């Protein structure tokens, strides 16, 4: 065998070896009975799903029907309107595509409640852009009034502002293992009275690096 043929054979063998060592990716559809997969490096569905669901259930469940119902011109009770201004992430992790997921889940929870309606997200974002405001600017009375005026121009008056904030705290036991506490906080502000109601839900998650790369998950409180 000449030198050129031997070189070609060697390259072919190396290519085959590399292909054989390469991992194979696959997927499967989860049924409603399957548990969420647990993120090995950061929070995923197993974290955000219960945090959002628990916080919204507690916050909306505390609102008494007699306090939030108003009467329409026909005498029929009508639902008050919530303006959800978005998710503020102060945690150690990037939310990635979960930011929009969290927004939509909160929006759905409000829509499915029997006491509230929610302002469409596009109207809210347009109003903030028009006034050149960020979500936390709405705690300033003058800027909040400007935002309310902009929303009224769109015929999107509201009774409550809803804020969502995500924070985290990290505890390291050694160079490999650590615990991260995720805190999801909702704040509902009555724009007419200034009264605020707040609800927070925490979930603790342990990250462990082993020889097999196994990750264990702890329950939430």
What does this structure look like?
The protein has a domain at 77-221: 3-Layer(aba) Sandwich (Rossmann fold). The chain is 36% helix and 25% strand. The protein starts with a helix and ends in a 14-residue tail after the last strand. The protein is α/β, with parallel strands linked by helices. Strands 4-3-5-6-7 form a 5-stranded mixed sheet. The chain has a two-stranded antiparallel ribbon with strand order 1-2. α2 runs parallel beside α4 (98-112) and α5 (121-131) packs across α6 (141-153). 20% of the residues are buried.
Succession of helices and strands: HHHEEEHEHHEEE
Low-confidence regions: 213-221
Q: Fraction of residues in helices?
A: 25-40%
Q: Looking at CATH, which topology of the domain at 77-221 would you report?
A: Rossmann fold
**How many individual helices?**
6
CATH class value of the domain at 77-221: Alpha Beta
Tertiary shape: elongated
Based on CA atoms alone, the radius of gyration comes out at 25 Å
What order do the strands of the largest sheet run in, or round the barrel if closed? 4-3-5-6-7
CATH homology group of the domain at 77-221 = ABC-type transport auxiliary lipoprotein component
**Strand runs, count:** 7
Q: Pairing-aware structural class of the strands and helices?
A: alpha/beta
Oligomer: single chain
Could you report the average pLDDT, rounded to the nearest whole number? 77
What is the straight-line distance between the termini?
Answer: 70 Å
CATH architectural designation of the domain at 77-221? 3-Layer(aba) Sandwich
């Amino acid at each position: 065998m000449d030198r050129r043929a031997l070189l070609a054979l060697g390259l072919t063998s190396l290519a085959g070896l590399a292909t054989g060592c390469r991992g194979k990716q696959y997927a499967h559809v989860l049924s409603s009975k399957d548990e969420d997969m647990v993120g090995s490096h950061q929070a995923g569905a197993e974290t955000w799903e219960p945090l959002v669901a628990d916080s919204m259930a507690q916050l909306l469940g505390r609102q008494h029907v007699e306090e939030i119902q108003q009467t329409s011109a026909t005498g029929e009770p009508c639902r008050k309107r919530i303006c959800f201004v978005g998710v503020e992430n102060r945690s150690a992790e990037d939310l990635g595509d979960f930011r929009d997921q969290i927004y939509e889940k909160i929006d759905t929870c409000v829509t499915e409640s029997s006491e509230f309606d929610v302002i469409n997200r596009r109207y809210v974002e347009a109003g903030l852009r028009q006034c050149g405001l960020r979500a936390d600017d709405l705690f300033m009375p003058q800027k909040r009034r400007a935002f309310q005026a902009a929303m009224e121009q769109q015929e999107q008056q509201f009774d409550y502002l809803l804020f969502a904030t995500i924070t985290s705290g990290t505890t390291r036991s050694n160079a490999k293992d650590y615990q991260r506490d995720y805190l999801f906080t909702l704040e509902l502000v009555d724009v007419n009275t200034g009264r605020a109601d707040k609800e927070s839900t925490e979930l603790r998650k342990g990250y462990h690096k082993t020889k097999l790369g196994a990750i264990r998950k702890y329950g939430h409180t």
